[in-house]
Amino acid sequence: MMAILSDLDGVLVDSHAAIMRAWRWWGAQHGIADDVIAAIPQGRPSREVIAMLAPHLDAAAESEAVDGYEARDTEGLVALPGAHELLALDEAVAVVTSGTVPLATARLRAVGLPIPHVLVTPERLTCGKPDPEGYLLAAAELAADPAECVVLEDAPAGIAAGRAAGMHVVGITTTYAAAELHEAHELAPSIAAWLRSRGNGTR
Q: N or C: which end of the chain has fewer CB within 10 A?
């Protein structure tokens, strides 16, 4: 059975401005320079980013604060082209995100997208992207062979996770330039464009 496993931020929902507002807020609390905040890698769990940037802090507690800030800030969130159509497909679709359950559900609801039956978040994992654990768990819960799964990702960490899971990876060029997503098996500017290319997109 074919299954589609999609990242959330930058693939289904344009949340970049909200993400950066939260990280700038956090950085200001801890004296972290704006240029360091601007270079934060996308697609990684906040806990891992904090541990990397500020190893002297309690990463779990700080992550909870950042994710809570993001969950409350839904200003400017929009569903990206093709998101509604993807989640309405007859095929099995899961969302695998580095955001927590409260954050992921807040963003999906804010833009009018349904909560998928299979939603894989950091609370359920030992390792976040680029580790393949999240994508392998989603495939297992959909009863899908990893080799029959398609991953939709906008960040290098997610692309690496999908490839490590043995899946076909489509790089969505909404967050990073195409050159930075060169490890994807194919590229598309949006879910809508990818759906059109396979014959079930919107007009």
A: C
Hey, what are 64's tokens?
């909870």
User: Which residues belong to the active site?
Assistant: 7, 9
* 3-state SS track over the chain: CCEEEECCECCCEECHHHHHHHHHHHHHHHCCCHHHHHCCCCCCCHHHHHHHHCCCCCHHHHHHHHHHHHHHCCCCCEECCCHHHHHCCCCEEEEECCCCHHHHHHHHHHCCCCCCCEEECHHHCCCCCCCCHHHHHHHHHCCCCHHHEEEEECCHHHHHHHHHCCCEEEEECCCCCHHHHCCCCEEECCHHHHHHHCCCCCC
Give the tens place of pLDDT for each residue, 145-198.
999 999 999 999 999 999 999 999 999 999 999 999 999 999 999 999 999 998
Place of tokens 């879910």: 191
Burial of 57 (0-12, 13-18, 19+ CB in 10 A): middle
